[in-house]
Design brief:
alpha/beta; Rossmann fold; pyruvate-formate lyase- activating enzyme; OB fold (Dihydrolipoamide Acetyltransferase, E2P); 3 domains; five-stranded parallel β-sheet; 33% helix
């Protein structure tokens, strides 16, 4: 039996691919080890979405390459080999024995696996429902790395989800480059709505949807999320920017009015829904005027959570050659200013939840009478945590990680919540 030491970098979509590969390799008599020195194979699944991701991938390759022993094989898969020519990579990294592209399991079988080996927690898992992207955003390299948009077959997704449920996960998280248009290429009308309805019949308490494109999100999809009792009231809405001219240069086919309408509709239907967004600062031509416009828009909308990227002129994208490139230091300054603003907005939004009761998926134990987990409004790995303490009159057994409990929110910070656990007749 050959031992394999796995390292997966990048987004949840990349992780889901790699977990399928691990399951396939286990069927082929591989054994996973967390000790790189004892492994026969050192396998790195890379990311290459933006410059920092490429740099991180290179760093890990060099680090493991320096530790590699004569009997070991170093394998690199994922977005880095998909983005750059393998002939060039072999010259740069002679220590690497084999390069594979994206969805590396395809090199071992014609049929896509539906089994997975979860590489993180056993309590939630990502279900990648689409591959690639057919949008033409001027800053993005993903279509060149992962190809055009393609939906995963419905039957395949349901089989994979059933396998994850058998493994005991409590939250299923749908991911893809644009989850809102799932099924369009398969001829499935209202594909996301159909998929959510079918998944809701599975024995799983929670379903979350990420990567909802503002251009293709509509009332039908919003209601399918809010009206399905198993789908969490959480909207991941990456707007990228708010100024009409910058959005136009990015080739994002919407304006600030559409963003505002979506947010208003979501909150009018369920005021305590959480809305996360992602924005980019320092795009070519973003003057101080456009940047201030963005700040004012964020103050108006008050997203619950927000992530910020700075613009990198990625090789092979139209924006690489745009005029009026912003100096790197200025891009960093703008990023810090946005994060400073968002800290206060996030705290304001989270503070409104004090006194409410939230359902929390417990992920671990912090101390003898304290646990931590994620509420319905917190996506794992990108949002904050909820810390759960036991009421002084709590005399039951300590809940275990993997359980879903109800607790009353007592305190909020910029990103995290603190809750107190009571036992009531309605306790989950």
């Amino acid at each position: 039996m050959k031992k394999l030491y796995p390292v997966s970098l990048g987004c949840p979509k990349n992780k889901a691919d790699f977990e399928k590969l691990l399951a396939l390799l286990l069927r082929r008599n591989f054994q996973i080890t967390l000790d790189p020195e004892s492994a026969d194979f050192l396998w790195i699944n890379t990311c290459a979405f933006i410059k920092p991701a490429v740099q991180e991938s290179i760093k890990v390759i060099l680090e493991l390459g320096s530790l590699k022993k004569p009997f070991q094989k170093l394998v690199v898969s994922g977005c880095l080999p998909a983005r750059y020519k393998q002939t060039e990579l072999k010259k740069l990294f002679p220590e690497v024995d084999k390069f594979y592209g994206i969805e590396p399991y395809r090199y071992f079988t014609e049929k896509e696996p539906t089994e997975r080996i979860l590489s993180e927690t056993p309590f939630y898992a990502y279900l990648k429902i689409t591959e690639g992207c057919s949008h033409a955003c001027t800053y993005c390299i993903i279509p060149k790395i992962r190809g055009p948009f393609k939906s995963k077959p419905l039957e395949l997704l349901l089989e994979e989800a059933k396998n994850l449920v058998k493994m005991g996960i409590k939250e299923l998280i749908l991911v893809g480059q644009d989850t809102t248009v799932y099924g369009k290429d398969l001829g499935i009308k209202n594909g996301l709505e159909v998929l959510l309805e079918k998944l809701s019949f599975l024995e799983i308490p929670r379903i979350r949807v990420l990567y909802l494109n503002p251009a293709t999100l509509n009332s039908s999809k919003i209601r399918s999320i809010l009206e399905n009792p198993k789908v969490l009231p959480y909207f991941d809405l990456p707007i990228q920017h708010a100024h009409p001219e910058i959005l136009k240069k990015m080739r994002r086919p919407y304006g600030p009015d559409k963003i505002w309408e979506l947010v208003e509709e979501i909150r009018s239907l369920t005021p305590f829904s959480a809305i996360r967004t992602t924005i980019m600062v320092g795009f070519p031509g973003e003057t101080e005027k456009e940047f201030v416009y963005l700040l004012e828009f964020l103050k108006l909308v008050k997203f619950d959570y927000l992530g910020v990227f700075i613009f990198y002129p990625e090789e092979g994208t139209p924006a690489e050659k745009f005029d009026f490139q912003i100096p790197y230091k200025e891009k960093l300054r703008r990023k810090k200013e946005v994060l400073k603003l968002q800290r206060e907005i996030s705290k304001e939004r989270l503070s409104q939840r004090i006194g409410t009761t939230e359902e929390i998926l417990l992920l671990g134990e912090k101390s003898t009478r304290s646990l931590y987990g994620i509420s319905k409004i917190q996506a794992p790995e990108i949002d904050g945590l909820t810390y759960v303490v036991l009421n002084k009159n709590f005399n039951k057994n300590l809940p275990l990680p993997g359980e879903i409990v109800k607790a009353k929110i007592k305190k909020a910070s910029f990103y995290d919540l603190w809750a107190e656990l009571f036992i009531t007749e309605n306790q989950v």
